[in-house]
What we know:
This protein has 7 helices and 8 strands. Helix 3 crosses helix 7. It is globular. The termini are close together. The mean pLDDT is 93.
Amino acid sequence: MTKQVAFLRAINVGGHTVKMDALRGLFEALGLAGVETFIASGNVLFDPAGGDARALEKKIEAHLQQALGYQVATFIRSTDELAEVTRYRAFPAADVEAEGHGLYIGFLAESPAEETVQKLLACTTAVDAFHVHGREVYWLCRTRFSESLFGGQRMEKTLGAQATFRNVTTLQKIVAKYTYG
């Protein structure tokens, strides 16, 4: 059985510390079953809840806002969708696998307009390259993430939308652990 994954923005960064057992409890309080967390960066897995994923994202966001006192943007993908996201090749393997390079995948609530995609692509430098596919942004960083001049706030400003990013390795580990068959 496939799982759903809620990728949460602003969990255990910027002074917002949330214990994983407390985070699991917040999801269970919404009636979600099979709740698990995967590393302490805001990845919450649960059994499929049925219904509209966007409505569930909004319900989770409202619940977390009330419980934690700050906004937590939420982006839900099934583990099957996540498998497709990690298999997609936005950049040549040699670039992704080169020493010191990292690939990060950002989750958006909806696919950006072509004008927005072009605005992001115009930010490409020798260090940072971008590709948009559906509701995901692929970010190839040819240095340590912390050394890139292009950060999350600039990304959100360029996209005109909230996003949360994960290293592709983390996403591949989720897929390996929770995708069956």
